[in-house]
Amino acid sequence: EAGISKDGQTREHALLAYTLGVRQIIVAINKMDTAQWAEARFDEIIKETSTFIKKVGFNPKTVPFVPISGFNGDNMLESSKNCPWYKGWNKETKAGAVTGKTLLQAIDAIEPPARPTDKPLRLPLQDVYKIGGIGTVPVGRIETGILKPGMVVTFAPSNVTTEVKSVEMHHEQLTEGLPGDNVGFNVKNVSVKEIRRGNVAGDSKNHPPAAAASFTA
């Protein structure tokens, strides 16, 4: 009840998710066992939640509503016998209607977002390490574009240009890093003092990152 009240955390989370660009959500209604799996209570919460997520910007028809008991595991991985009235969730997608019963099925029904591989490389650095026998290794998450060994990258705003010797993720060598990948990459002839957290790496031959004179927020 507190979560969906006027200043509730659930409302806040829905607004934050939408503001950050999340367009697919699942509403799991927990602790249904404490409400004796009452269908009327479930319907009441759906009605209330649908109203405010619609105001935020989500379309309730694209959102699965799943009654669960996290403590007992009901409707988490397998369909529960405690709510015979529950016929399952359904949601509309670009490919058509999707239905299911459990929270796991709802998670599996999330459509993977399109990765912006066609845009220029942008990789904000989370940290820069000096590793013995290897050298300088910047790490960060690729936001757009593709990072490959042999590519010449430029770091902004420090304006350092260097060649990428190798790209790794989870201690495995990659032939290319894609948007969403958290990678570490070894660079030639650059000391840890020349680049730092917050710098942005880009392909020096394809719209490298540059300083902005102004921006509209």
From TrEMBL:
It holds the Pfam family GTP_EFTU. Residues 198-217 are annotated as: Disordered. It is found in: Cytoplasm. This is Translation elongation factor 1 alpha. It comes from Bertia gigantospora. Residues 135-200 form the Translation elongation factor EFTu-like domain. Keywords: Cytoplasm, Elongation factor, GTP-binding, Nucleotide-binding, Protein biosynthesis. It comes from the Eukaryota. GO terms for cellular component: cytoplasm. GO terms for molecular function: GTP binding; GTPase activity; translation elongation factor activity. Residues 7-111 form the Tr-type G domain.
